[in-house]
Every structure is written in structure tokens, then in C-alpha cells.
Amino acid sequence: MPNDFDADNDVVIQLLQGPPEAGFDCGREDQNRFLYERAWPDQQAQLSVTYLYYVKGIIAAYASLCMDALPLGRGERGRAVRYHDVASLKLVQLGVHRPFQGVGLGRFVVADVIVLARNEATRVGCRYVTLDAQPDLVRWYEDQGFKRNVLRQEQRIRDAIEHGRDAERIAVSMRFDLREAWP
């Protein structure tokens, strides 16, 4: 990756328009496979949309988004939110191409998703950005202002145990409150 990378000036964001070109590798097989096998078919089926973040003509990152309904317990939602399920925008997948890792591009993409969600919240009800973080990325997302979803995670743990999966390895449900400041 070039040393003169500047996220605010060098990133071009485009909606996925067809199957993505080859060459992207974020070092996580699930995210790579999603981009190449699911992103375009899911977008055509209106299940999610994928944004590509280009730097100097190279896919440097991608983010796939869909709508979500986040179940929150009384303690999680506070008194102002009366509903059990709260409208949210879900960051389904996020990947940063290896040469662009460690320079703030992932943080840039998350910030962009939050801006998009805030803009959409002026047209439709949307209180949170949600995501499912791999256990090794939970701390990174917490540093971006995300909190763990207690009720949803408890449901996932019960489901994992019921189906014989290791509850320690399941993704962690997290949320960012759009009414809070970005860190």
C-alpha cells in the first residue's frame, strides 16, 4: 500500500454493480467468500447491499448492509425506548484488503456506515447500527463505540448449545447507538 494514503481524500465509494473483480483478500476466509459468492446474489435478491471502497483503483475494503430488528432487554434499551425490537441498520460484512490493514481504513468504513445510518434515520426509523463481531474483533469494535447486545447474545448462546456448537466461538452481537457521538 502506498505510504501517501489519505482516507478522506483517496477513498472512492461505489455500490457493487456486478460480481467483484478478483484480487481482494482480507485474510478472513468467511469475508472473502461472502464478497465473491454472496454479495452480488444477495444484492440482486434485495437481501443486502455492498459498498466497495477503492483506493487508487484497487478494492481496498467493502461493507455489506441490510436492515435489522434488534431485540433489547429493559436494561439495554432504557426508559425512552418502549419497544422490545428496535429498528437498526446491520453491518453484515466488513473486509479490508490486506495491503490496507492497519492504516485506519476499517475505522473509516465503520464511520461511513454510521453516517449512512444517520442519514437514513431521517427518512425511516433507525436507532442503531448492529453487527456480529468475531470474538477476536470485539475489542476493536468496542473502541469504535459499539456495545454488546446482552439479550441477543444470550439467545445465540442458548441456540449454539442446543445445536452442539461451541458457544465461545460464536460471533458477538453488538450495537452502536446513533444518538451517541462517534468516538
Written account of the structure:
- It is a single chain.
- By secondary structure, the chain is an alpha+beta fold.
- The chain has one domain (8-177): Gcn5-related N-acetyltransferase (GNAT) (Aminopeptidase), CATH 3.40.630.30.
- The protein is 32% helix and 28% strand.
- A 7-stranded mixed β-sheet has the order 1-2-3-4-5-7-6, with helices on both faces.
- Helix 4 (105-120) links the parallel strand 4 and strand 5.
- The longest helix is centred in the N-terminal third of the chain and has 16 residues, at 29-44.
- It starts with 6 loop residues before the first helix and ends in a 6-residue tail after the last strand.
- The model has no long low-confidence stretch (mean pLDDT 92).
Describe the secondary structure blueprint for this structure.
Layout: H1 7-10, E1 11-15, H2 29-44, E2 49-55, E3 58-71, H3 74-77, E4 85-96, H4 105-120, E5 128-133, H5 138-143, E6 147-148, H6 150-162, E7 172-177
Parallel strand pairs: 4-5
Antiparallel strand pairs: 1-2, 2-3, 3-4, 5-7, 6-7
Helix amount, in percent? Answer: 25-40%
- Taken as a percent bin, the fraction of beta residues is 25-35%
**At the fourth CATH level, what is the homologous superfamily?**
Gcn5-related N-acetyltransferase (GNAT)
CATH C-level class: Alpha Beta
Unreliable runs: none
User: How many separate domains make up the residues?
Assistant: 1
> Strands of the biggest beta sheet: in what spatial order?
1-2-3-4-5-7-6
Specify the oligomeric state: single chain
Mean pLDDT, rounded to whole units?
92
In CATH, the architecture is 3-Layer(aba) Sandwich
For the record, give the distance between the C-alpha atoms at the N and C termini, rounded to a whole number: 26 Å
CATH topology label:
Aminopeptidase
Gross morphology: globular
Written as H for each helix and E for each strand, in order along the chain, the element string is HEHEEHEHEHEHE
Q: How large is the radius of gyration?
A: 17 Å
Which structural class fits the helix and strand makeup? alpha+beta
